[in-house]
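Box 3.1. Reading complex inputs
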Amino acid sequence: MDSAAVMKDITDRAKKAAVVLNVMSSDEKNRALLAMAEALDAARSAIKEANAVDLAGAEEKGKSGAYLDRLKLDDKRIDGMRAMLREVAALDDPVGDVLEKRERPNGLIIEKVRTPIGVMGIIYESRPNVTADCVSLCLKSGNAVILRGGSDAINSNKAIYEALKKGAASEGLARGAFILIEDTSRELVEAMLKAAGDIDLIMPRGGESLIREVVEKSTVPVIKHYKGICHVYVDAGADLDMAEAICYNAKVQRPGVCNAMETMLVHESVAEKFLPRVAGALRGAGVRMKGCPATRRILGIDIEEAADEDYATEWLDLVLNIRVVASLEEAIGHIARFGSRHSDAIVTGDPEAAAEFTKKVDSAAVYVNASTRFTDGREFGKGAEIGISTDKLHARGPMGLEELCTYKYVVRGSGQIRE
Amino acid sequence: MDSAAVMKDITDRAKKAAVVLNVMSSDEKNRALLAMAEALDAARSAIKEANAVDLAGAEEKGKSGAYLDRLKLDDKRIDGMRAMLREVAALDDPVGDVLEKRERPNGLIIEKVRTPIGVMGIIYESRPNVTADCVSLCLKSGNAVILRGGSDAINSNKAIYEALKKGAASEGLARGAFILIEDTSRELVEAMLKAAGDIDLIMPRGGESLIREVVEKSTVPVIKHYKGICHVYVDAGADLDMAEAICYNAKVQRPGVCNAMETMLVHESVAEKFLPRVAGALRGAGVRMKGCPATRRILGIDIEEAADEDYATEWLDLVLNIRVVASLEEAIGHIARFGSRHSDAIVTGDPEAAAEFTKKVDSAAVYVNASTRFTDGREFGKGAEIGISTDKLHARGPMGLEELCTYKYVVRGSGQIRE
């Protein structure tokens, strides 16, 4: 069979399962999720053995320590997957919620009802825990899911997949509700990207080059998140204690994630006072700073000069760009030019400045007097998230169960016809 | 300049205007819309002259009568465009609506706020009234729009565009808020489809081949509507008077539109009684019927046999497929196989059958005891619509002003940092 035929067979199975998932009760879905958590426990040693094979292979290829760390599955990570399955089982079922209801003058009652999307596709790199996380969220939201993980994690993924299938089967879950693509060839992933009409949505998870390739080639709609170049702007009238705490938290608390600050913008009227104190704290945490000429004048020229390409870089590390701006408008302009529409914050005591910033900054999450680090499904009260969208269509910001759903209109009448 | 550079110049202008549109008040937008309606009136003779040139050109190319009719602009159509502009001015402004608000345990207040999407692209065929309709809806929803209409309507489109620009300028609307692409070359439309990052959403309007080409080539997200293959299923216990009225209305009232019925499904237990009476009424209206073997047994073999390809055809005409089914399940299966996820109805007296149908039929609008013809922005209480989406992402069913918007999260704190 050629790749298109193999993919057609996979999507046919997923579509059949989606029909069943669409009408499953919350209880049925939850029982399957809990059984899958138990099955992961039972398969613990098989999963670790398979993972050891993957790790040895990746090491042989000379992969970096960070790469190997993401690939590694220890008891803690297996327990993390189990906790996710149980957490998702405990979340409210979004399917069937009535989002709007209106009665028309002719007596028609129109309800906008939340429904599953159908068949999801996830393309991800060699992080095997993504396998279980995505399965749990798609199942609870009533969607079938086709998973295509990185080839370096294939043994780990297969072991997780077998365990999840065993758990799911014990509760009678439809076969095809989740399908791991075991053939990690390039041809098959390209067939997946051309499966418009059979797959409803593809979510790539991984580095920017993977995501760009998916967007370029896919005829299936894609929701994505390229990167997080997040800013904190310290306004003229900011409380400088608050500003320091927020900037320190946004940069240092977990620098390797997408909602960490990459560039700090400081109004010129507070720069002389604010920069030395915040720089002291940041330096203490090991942050390497790059600054505009004004920043370097204030902090000293041992700080590297920041170029445009620095402002456009997602460091994901203890590196920070600093720029002094003459106005709120200039800060907003910098964010429009270099930001990634992810999360941006203003620290200010001025309600008008806050209003202007929140209105004009076109990002998924815009903060006033809080750290950008809060952009996260759990912190937003959504429970677990499948990712964060920096797109504008369908879902923006943290994507939880609700964002894995669409809606349909259910219209009830008593014989109405159109005049 | 090559096409990509020309397009970049166009999208740069649109993006600049989008920044201004985003913060415009409802009053400012409404004043511009009303001035544009007046300007169309003033340009009436220029528009008709330009349209005469287009009509002569299309006639010379041997275009069909229906094509020429869609292209034609008379006083009534010009008044229709003006009415649309005024109607849209009177609609509520969706921008800034707070869709959700929650306070988190840490005191953060998270609001989900409706915002414009940004820069829209509309690709359409030779129906010049679409130009004014799309401009009005995009402007009111705070979006800039780039319009690429069919080459046969270019003179009409230019005349409308000039009039709209004049009206908009009299109210100081940002230049670039709406831009007609005057060069209708193939290269430029292809550059438009590759403008991901500069255009946020493309909506193709026209025949299926145009739409498929856009989906195939576009790296910009697309929302579309291929076709409407709508069904009415007459269930075992249906009120046959109601069923007849609904089926007649769904087929006959306006057969050339996407929410008209193309296939009627009838439960075998009522077929003997129902088919002869509904066929009489339909025949009286000039409907050509194609039937399954059971239908032909009941109605007589002068009715043509319906093949699978008939069930998959959007007739847009006084033609109807009829199929007798043994069960509700079979009706749902037929709709899943041949339908286009647009609008499908059940006529039934049985609440359980209604519940099963509305749950299992995966269409934008699912009706119980009402005509499919109600799938329309105005009938749904949304006011004017830009189209109907048969996609599942972002917007499904009629797309009004709200569906031309996205949202962002605005998070207000008092110095919160993440632990």
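In summary: Chain A touches chain B through 67 residues (CB under 8 Å).
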